[in-house]
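step: validate -> pass
step: tokenize input -> pass
step: predict -> running
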Amino acid sequence: MSGVRMDHYLEVDFKGFQKFVDELGGVDITTHRSIKDTGSHLSLSAGKHTLKGEQALALVRTRHGVGDGSDLGRIQLQQTFIKALIHRAESIGVVSNPARAYELADTATKTVSADSGLASADKLLGLAKDLKGISPDHMNMITLPVSYDAQDPGRVLPLTKASHQVWQALRDDHPIPKSATDNSVAARTDSPVTAGT
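step: predict -> pass
step: emit ->
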């Protein structure tokens, strides 16, 4: 669909996700309003929180307590959580503390599946060093521009022209034009969570 080569991938299951978050000592987020989702068993008041593994998993699985209750809101929570995870790794000095970095990389190799290019603690550490200096504040995450399917409102369809703009920008290593996401239904959902406290 994208025409963009994916050089590497990481895949984490629920149990591994919880273990990795616990190994980091939790992840800090701020909720701008309370979130209650009986489906994911998440109940958070508005304010600052340090989420440990089980609560963090509930947050990234939540969808009924945010936005319009669709997966689009859940995607935004997951994107925010990734930034919070990177903030946490920076705040505890993972890259500047080789022993701690190796410990976390070793945990990651036991909790994630990866392609052969990332499937060892040393290779994950190499990736972390390559990414050093890229702050979460300078990361832009987007959701592919979509509209709800008129035939099935439980589905979304890519906005053809806007999606092409996204993929072309990525192929050319250029910033994604803001206009590409303006008409997406995903852009209409504000995340009730920000990274950090």
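step: describe -> The longest helix spans residues 71-91.
step: cleanup -> pass
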